[in-house]
């Protein structure tokens, strides 16, 4: 029996209680659907697609919905991630495949966009021809402005670096249309995004593809939002509320008691 391959966890922000379970799932499903898939007629990207679908379904089922999964070679990514919900693995000993899982944050402060934009400024070259892989036909009309901006930005980039391409495209769509965008770039990869993502597109030029979509995930319930920063910001309002209740309580206790009137015989 062939020795199973194991991915190396390169980068992560996962809770210790979940890390081992996710690591086991990534390795198990990769071996079943990619490394040792019995269907020899499947292409590499078709195997990746099966793997990504199964992994995403398992993450959604066991760790809450709205996970994103990307699988590919030499994959560049510019994505905003939720705290404690991101991992990157590389199966270097098999085919150099990179596996990325993440969840979207609920908000993206606009001040961060400018700082991110200054990190990369690829040179502009002669415009290259860009092909829209999807959306097509009537489905393309609602996202026409997004597609136009992405094609214009991608056509002018003079770089083969997937990471620089992903970062530059994300800068453009965030500046033009606001947050929150997730952009991936590479020659061979697949993406399984959350079902409720918006403005999803895929374009191609010079052998490189760019896949992007828009998605945010707000906290559900009270407890997920109670982190240290949130509590500190809410502290002044909480103190003011407590003082108001204390004032009303003391006011009711200090009211003058009406004098008792003698009972007429």
Q: What would you note in describing this structure?
A:
The chain is α+β, with helices and mostly antiparallel strands. It is built from six helices and ten strands. It has helices spanning 16-35, 44-63, 110-117, 144-155, 162-177, 228-253; strands spanning 8-13, 67-73, 76-79, 86-91, 97-103, 131-134, 181-186, 188-192, 198-205, 208-214. The strands form two sheets. A five-stranded antiparallel beta sheet has the order 1-4-5-2-8, covered by helices on one side. A five-stranded antiparallel beta sheet has the order 3-7-10-9-6. Helix 1 runs antiparallel to helix 2 (44-63). The longest helix has 26 residues, at 228-253.
Write the layout of secondary structure elements.
Elements: E1 8-13, H1 16-35, H2 44-63, E2 67-73, E3 76-79, E4 86-91, E5 97-103, H3 110-117, E6 131-134, H4 144-155, H5 162-177, E7 181-186, E8 188-192, E9 198-205, E10 208-214, H6 228-253
Antiparallel strand pairs: 1-4, 2-5, 2-8, 3-7, 4-5, 6-9, 7-10, 9-10
Helix pairs in contact: 1-2, 3-5, 4-5
Q: Notable features of this structure?
A:
265 residues; alpha+beta; 5-stranded antiparallel sheet; 6 helices; globular
The strand count comes to: 10
- What is the arithmetic mean of pLDDT? 85
Helix content: 25-40%
Q: What is the number of helices?
A: 6
Instruction: Please outline the major beta sheet.
Output: 5 strands, antiparallel
Q: What share of the residues does DSSP label as strand, in percent?
A: 15-25%
Helix-strand category: alpha+beta
Order of strands across the widest beta sheet?
Answer: 1-4-5-2-8
Oligomeric state of this protein: single chain
The geometry reads as globular
H-E order: EHHEEEEHEHHEEEEH
Low-confidence stretches: 112-118, 221-227
Radius of gyration: 26 Å
For the termini, the CA-CA separation is 108 Å
């Amino acid at each position: 029996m062939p020795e199973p391959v194991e991915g190396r966890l390169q980068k992560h922000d996962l809770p210790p209680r979940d890390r081992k379970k996710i690591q086991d799932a990534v390795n198990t499903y990769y071996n079943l659907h990619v490394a040792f898939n019995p269907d020899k007629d499947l292409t590499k990207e078709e195997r990746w697609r099966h793997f990504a679908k199964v992994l995403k379904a398992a993450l959604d089922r066991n760790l809450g919905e709205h996970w994103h999964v990307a699988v590919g070679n030499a994959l560049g990514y510019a994505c905003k991630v939720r705290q404690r919900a991101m991992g990157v693995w590389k199966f270097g000993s098999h085919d150099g495949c990179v596996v990325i899982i993440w969840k979207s944050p609920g908000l993206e402060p606009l001040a961060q966009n400018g700082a991110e934009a200054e990190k990369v400024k690829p040179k502009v070259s002669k415009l290259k021809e860009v092909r829209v892989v999807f959306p097509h036909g009537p489905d393309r009309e609602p996202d026409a402005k997004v597609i136009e901006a992405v094609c214009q930005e991608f056509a002018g980039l003079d770089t083969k670096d997937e990471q620089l391409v992903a970062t530059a495209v994300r800068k453009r769509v965030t500046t033009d249309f606001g947050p929150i965008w997730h952009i991936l770039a590479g020659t061979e990869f697949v993406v399984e995004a959350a079902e409720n993502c918006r403005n999803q597109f895929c374009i191609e030029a010079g052998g490189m593809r760019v896949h992007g979509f828009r998605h945010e995930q707000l906290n559900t319930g009270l407890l997920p939002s109670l982190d240290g920063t949130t509590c500190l910001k809410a502290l002044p309002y909480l103190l003011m509320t407590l003082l108001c209740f204390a004032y009303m309580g003391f006011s009711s206790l200090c009211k003058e008691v009406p004098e008792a009137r003698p009972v007429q015989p």
